[in-house]
Please model this.
Amino acid sequence: MYDVVIPTVGRSSLPTLLSALAAQDGPLPRRVLVVDDRARPDTALALGVGGTEPLCGRLRVLRSGGKGPAAARNVGWRASSAAGGAGAEWIAFLDDDVVPFPSWAVDLSRDLDGLAPEVGGSCGRIVVPLPAGRRATDWERNVAGLETARWATADLAYRRTVLERVGGFDERFPRAYREDADLALRVVGAGHVIVQGARVVEHPVRPADRWVSVRLQRGNADDPLMRALHGPRWRATSGAPPGRRPWHLATTASLVLAVVAATAGRRRVGGGAALGWAVLTGDFARRRIAPGPRTRDEVVTMLATSLVLPPAATWHWLRGWATLRSRLRAPGPQPIRQQNGLPAAIFFDRDGTLVHDVPYNGDPARVAPVSGAREAVDRVRNLGIPVAVVSNQSGVGRGLIPQAHVDAVNARIEALLGPFAGWFLCPHAPEEGCACRKPQPGLVLRAAHRLGVDPSECVLIGDIGADVQAAHAAGARAILVPTPLTRTEEVALAPEVAPDLASAVESALGLGGRR
Ligand SMILES: [Mg+2]
Ligand SMILES: [Zn+2]
Model:
């Protein structure tokens, strides 16, 4: 059985969607939870006139107060859990601008029927009808990108228990952008699979004005958060297209340089920069005009927006960086808490904790686990608690070892100590001032987020004061296992100290004595 959750801002497409649901060939959803995300609704939500009677008794309207689609969907699925009885096994998310095919409900039941327990989600297929007889405009091509997008929440069903475990959508993503990839990455990171279903929804291209492509650049502000939460390779792991950010940055930099140089009377520099800007902007406009219909209106739109779009993209991206720290401090997804008192995950420092510290080691042959490491990590694994590594690898940022050598060493560690649910590495040099290098909390927060657990339920085991500080800054518990190289004041300051890895693990599990 499944519930449908539809976040909406009251668009006129909502009644069309509800009529299409009411007219399904097959069994209707247990409940249809429409979440009104208008900040200050001055009118009742328009649900449509006639045609939706079959939904009578199943349809509920909730409110989420304008906090964005992530927050609205959370209100919806949590209500499904709370509302009477056991809650539906599956939550099917639909956006308010799709139209399910008449066989959608039948196909969804078939998609979900008999899925293996490790399957946490099932994607629907999205088709975007494009006008026949002419080429698609830039906006139409943009919407058509949904057809190939991975994990688009326009039609995605998740197992309710999986949503509970990872805490649902991360409400720090305020708009319909990246919030779906973020959730999917956490679901996959928590060990679940997301499969492709056979059901289909149509996603019409709604009319938009000339400036829609510029407004969409606001999404750039969410990319620094994605990077902080999922690491520098988040685009590849989430299947996001590469985007044109390097070009937008270069275009904007040329423009800024041209203006600054002209103001300072440096005409040659200014002229050169202006030429660079003109070439980049012209090339950008050409790339957007070439595949399109080339009507006068479309060409004017492309020329005008191509001037504004690179600086807008750059501005929003910089804004994303400027607000990153405060966004990371805001509460993330809140998983339904574990009942049995065991930690939700245990993180291990690498050098000096799991393996003997060989500074800037790039050689797998020099990996030597500390004694009892395999048994200690296995002890945690066997309880079903995820284990991960959080490690500063500034040798990369200092140019002392290539990332590939670090990866080779980590592969060797996995060969000796068994698989880890995640490797969270900070490659930066200290002077880069990143948010992930311990004692900063970034790595711990990222690891908790990716494993779908709350940092306050995690324990970090490490060998120096920076490990302890990073854990505490992230709200996690820390246990120090000093080596002869650990400074005595760091040992004195640590609230919890264990003589070796085995007793640190017992202590983390709440089974051994604390100091
Ligand atoms: Mg260490
Ligand atoms: Zn870092």
Summary: The pocket of zinc ion (ligand 2) is lined by residues 426, 428, 434, 436-437 (CB under 6 Å). The chain is about 40% helix and 15% strand.
